[in-house]
Design a protein that fits this description.
about 270 residues; 11 strands; alpha/beta
Length: about 270
């Protein structure tokens, strides 16, 4: 039954039997069979087809998805506990952070969480905001820290803190240092370039705020970047209120009950952060 629920979860999230089969490393007929078995067991229809490829969950499918998330997480915790009988069982806690929040917020937050290391096994992942959102939606992360106001089903969003983006670096340089397209900073950079009618002749795409900050510190190029990651040596141009932004904590609408303590610790820390 748990194997069928796992297959159902991937089908629900991909909206495609072929994509689900590829993620699960099984054949498409096997995916179809497992979904059919679930529908027979529950005496309902879980999906309807919308065109040749995309499928749409029914009301029953949406209800089962919400319940399946809790069942699968409970099952994973139970398996870990049984396998580690007689040993101290640490609860996994997966935290994803965008590069900006990783630089500004993560060090202090992890220092706070360190005292819970006896009972929790922390895994930290750095990526851009869109990738963190995707990983949260696919249940690969328990908590996400992002700087882009992203919204999706099955996730809660808590705003906290403030950040100021500035135009920084060598303003006469033709070289623009850009973050990758799906990052929160790139979103603001594109808006800035459009508003100033600037079309950079030279660009360098870098997946790290810190690397960009280091280059600016050496007098290389110009960029839109968080003021907090710059040294005093870097020239800056302060921008309008449109470049003042907030950070966001992403959490699951149906969280893992084993992580309630950690969620409260994280929330309390972020509400004090400024």
């Amino acid at each position: 039954m748990f194997k069928q629920l796992q297959t159902f979860r991937i089908v629900y999230e991909t909206r495609n039997f072929s994509h689900a089969a590829a993620q699960l490393f099984i054949s498409q007929p096997t995916v179809s069979t497992q979904i059919k078995q679930l529908e027979t067991e529950l005496n309902t229809t879980l999906f309807t087809r919308n065109g040749r490829q995309e499928i749409v969950p029914t009301a029953s499918g949406k209800l089962l998805y919400r319940q399946a998330l809790q069942l699968l997480e409970t099952w994973d915790t139970t398996k870990a506990a049984v396998r580690a009988t007689g040993q101290l069982v640490k609860i996994p806690c997966r935290i994803g952070a965008s590069h900006t929040t990783g630089n500004l917020i993560l060090p202090g937050l992890l220092a706070t969480l360190a005292e819970y290391g006896e009972h929790f096994d922390f895994h930290i992942n750095l990526a851009n905001s869109a990738e963190i959102l995707t990983a949260m939606s696919q249940h690969k992360l328990d908590f996400g820290l992002v700087e882009k106001p992203l919204v999706t089903d099955n996730l809660n969003r808590l705003a906290f803190g403030h950040d100021e983006l500035v135009h920084a670096g060598n303003f006469d340089s033709p070289l623009w240092l850009l973050r990758e397209p799906n990052s929160g900073v790139r979103h603001y950079t594109n808006a800035f370039l459009k508003a100033r009618n600037v079309q950079p002749h030279q660009v360098m795409v870098i997946h790290s705020n810190q690397v960009i900050a280091d280059l600016l510190d050496q007098g290389v190029g110009q960029s839109i970047i968080s003021r907090h990651v710059l040294t005093d040596r870097v020239p800056v141009e302060h921008l309008s209120d449109h470049y003042q932004r907030r950070f966001f904590l992403l959490t699951k609408t149906q969280p893992n009950t084993d992580l309630e303590t950690i969620q409260q610790v994280i929330t309390n820390y972020l509400q004090r952060w400024h």
